[in-house]
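Weekly modeling sync, notes
Attendees: S.R. (lead), two postdocs, one rotation student

Agenda item 3: backlog of single-chain predictions. S.R. asked that every request posted to the team notebook include the full sequence so nobody has to chase files. The rotation student volunteered to paste the first one in as an example of the format we agreed on. Action items at the bottom.

Example entry:
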Amino acid sequence: MNTEDNTFGVEDADDSSGFLLWQVTNLWQREIKKALEVHSITHSQFVLMASIHWLTLQQKEVTQVVLSAHTKIDPMTTSTVLRTLQSKELIMRQEHPTDTRAKTVALTEKGKEVIKKAVVTVESFDNKFFAPLGNMTGAFNKKLITLLKGQ
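Predicted structure, as returned to the notebook:
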């Protein structure tokens, strides 16, 4: 590398954590998109539907605000994706019984059917994708959590 004009702080591209994360994320997103096509939902739709299902199983009240915080998807995008899911009859949104500013969100029966199959697809894909990590998967997840909590 021409060191006179080197504006980079690394000698090799593989020394850049951000660049590596960007590459892995793009690869993972591209492949997860393909895996979800069979269910006719996008990855954002999957994440929100899976989160509705997860939070419901945890017996938590599911609102758009709760979903946005849980998924780390901004509120406007959450609302837009939920509107699309509602038009596909996969979720239902209703006025909150006590907070007039909030909407509760739930899966429809059709939505439950779709998400249960999609979760199996995604978990199977993730198992294959992350298999090269072997017994380091738990440590990898802890490092990702550390990054999330640091923001």
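Discussion: group reviewed the output briefly. The chain is about 60% helix and 5% strand.
Action items: rotation student to repeat for the remaining queue; S.R. to check formatting next week.
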